[in-house]
């Protein structure tokens, strides 16, 4: 066992054991062998753990300083890799106008594979730099471009779900597919990803939203997802205008339209969900479908404000998404902070509502994200036998916020969420491998 590249991390460790329980281990340790966490505990028990695992004194040990904490890697449950060039522009518009003016014209450029390589290399690197160990990506409608995204993620060592986008209607004439071609391309893309035999990167079925497909096509995608045991991602109830259009076309509520297409499963994650009605929320809960909360884009595109606690009340899993370029930056740190701010705003208008706490958004950005993506058996916290996806945060870096007095581990986490950025992300590990 000792021959499998053992590593020991010592210092202050924080992770969520559940939505309601955050564990803080002061002066603790984690033993990692290969990709897996083999032991975690108080520093006083390290010798016993090493003996049990037959580890000698030459095992590498990384000891954190008093300004550093070890936390699980951040999980971005919704981002459009192809939209990265547009971050920071177009926020004078709302969703549907923004798609037509900025998004579709940019995504068409990804027919050029050199442009694809340039953008995807940059966005995956930036995502990792910001501490994201797991990302759920939308690609484009072009298979070759999406293959480049898969290759880029593998090269950089991130854990990811990657989707080839389906658009067969209500799309630009020069950025659309025939239904049979779109389905065939999706099958080819799934085959390409699986041919890589990479445990970290998996395909995900990705109809853009209900407006860009129809019920029959959704049913075809659902059969593929069921046959290959695939994840599914899309958008739902992001804006009032979008909701109205879907209801006019399908003659039913947004969630019902997806359900009639058999796309609501336990491995489905839908972005936004701001305007879901009572019956729709009950339906999502029954199906085990999750929601990706994207506070940055919801604010920038003036879409609305999601009440995360309402989704929890219905038993719906929720993760955080950066949703670039509806969002401004591919940083889950930023998403956690904006999630807090937006929750406070929502509480002003709901009687007796208590806003989200920093512990709760930490859960959303880590274990909650893994649960929303049905990856909680593999990642999200520091349970024994899970993969070691982790980041070392240092709140005493020269280019960051001045660190002028000692802080407890909880205070360091608060500082990171409220005032931190990627400069505070000192190291990033995915499945035990250092990727930053």
UniProtKB/TrEMBL annotation:
GO terms for biological process, alphabetical: guanine catabolic process
EC number(s) from the headed UniProt entry: 3.5.4.3
InterPro entries: Amidohydro-rel, Guanine_deaminase, Metal-dep_hydrolase_composite, Metal_Hydrolase, Metallo-dep_hydrolases
Pfam families in alphabetical order: Amidohydro_1
Gene Ontology cellular component terms for the protein in this record: cytosol
Keyword Transferase: no
GO MF term set: guanine deaminase activity; zinc ion binding
Signal peptide positions (record): none
Cofactor(s) annotated in UniProt: Zn(2+)
Keywords: Hydrolase, Metal-binding, Zinc
Pathway: Purine metabolism; guanine degradation; xanthine from guanine: step 1/1
Amidohydrolase-related domain residues: 69-435
Reaction equations catalysed: guanine + H2O + H(+) = xanthine + NH4(+)
Note on cofactor: Binds 1 zinc ion per subunit.
Highest taxon listed in the record's lineage: Eukaryota
Family: Belongs to the metallo-dependent hydrolases superfamily. ATZ/TRZ family.
Stated role: Catalyzes the hydrolytic deamination of guanine, producing xanthine and ammonia.
PANTHER family assigned to the protein according to its UniProt record, in alphabetical order: GUANINE DEAMINASE
Record's protein name: Guanine deaminase
Organism: Phyllotreta striolata
Species classification: Eukaryota, Metazoa, Ecdysozoa, Arthropoda, Hexapoda
């Amino acid at each position: 066992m000792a021959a499998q590249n053992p590593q020991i991390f010592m210092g202050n460790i924080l992770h969520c054991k559940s939505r309601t329980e955050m564990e803080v281990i002061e002066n603790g340790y984690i033993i990692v062998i290969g990709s897996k966490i083999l032991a975690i505990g108080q520093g006083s028990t390290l010798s016993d753990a090493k003996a049990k695992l037959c580890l000698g004194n030459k095992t590498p040990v990384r000891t954190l300083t008093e300004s550093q904490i070890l936390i699980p890697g951040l999980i971005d449950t919704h981002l459009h890799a192809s939209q990265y060039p547009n971050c920071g522009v177009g926020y004078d518009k709302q969703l549907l106008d923004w798609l037509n003016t900025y998004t579709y014209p940019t995504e068409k450029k990804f027919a050029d594979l050199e442009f694809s390589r340039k953008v995807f290399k940059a966005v995956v690197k930036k995502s990792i730099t910001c501490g994201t160990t797991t990302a759920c990506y939308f690609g484009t409608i072009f298979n070759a471009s999406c293959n480049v995204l898969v290759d880029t993620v593998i090269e950089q060592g991130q854990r990811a779900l990657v989707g080839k986008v389906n658009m067969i209607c209500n799309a630009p004439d020069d950025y659309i597919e025939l239904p049979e071609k779109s389905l065939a391309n999706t099958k080819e893309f799934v085959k390409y990803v699986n041919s890589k035999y990479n445990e970290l990167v998996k395909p995900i079925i990705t109809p853009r939203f209900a407006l860009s497909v129809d019920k029959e096509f959704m049913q075809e995608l659902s059969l593929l997802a069921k046959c290959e045991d695939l994840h599914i991602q899309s958008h739902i109830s992001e804006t009032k205008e979008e909701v109205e259009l879907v209801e006019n076309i399908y003659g039913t509520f947004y969630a019902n339209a997806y359900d009639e297409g058999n796309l609501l499963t336990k491995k489905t994650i839908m972005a936004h969900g701001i305007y879901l009605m009572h019956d729709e929320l009950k339906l999502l809960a029954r199906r085990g479908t999750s929601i990706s909360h994207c506070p940055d884009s919801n604010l920038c595109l003036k879409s609305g404000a999601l009440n995360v606690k309402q989704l929890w009340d219905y038993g719906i899993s929720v993760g955080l998404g950066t949703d670039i370029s509806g969002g401004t930056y591919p940083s889950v740190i930023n998403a956690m902070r904006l999630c807090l701010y937006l929750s406070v705003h929502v509480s002003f208008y709901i009687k007796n509502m208590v806003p989200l706490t920093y512990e709760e958004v930490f859960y959303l950005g880590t274990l909650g994200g893994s649960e929303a993506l049905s990856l909680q058996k593999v990642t999200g916290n520091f349970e024994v036998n899970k993969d070691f996806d982790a980041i070392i945060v240092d709140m005493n870096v020269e280019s960051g916020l001045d660190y002028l007095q000692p802080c407890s581990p909880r205070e360091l986490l608060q500082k990171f969420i409220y005032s931190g950025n990627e400069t505070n992300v000192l190291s990033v590990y995915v499945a035990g491998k250092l990727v930053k």
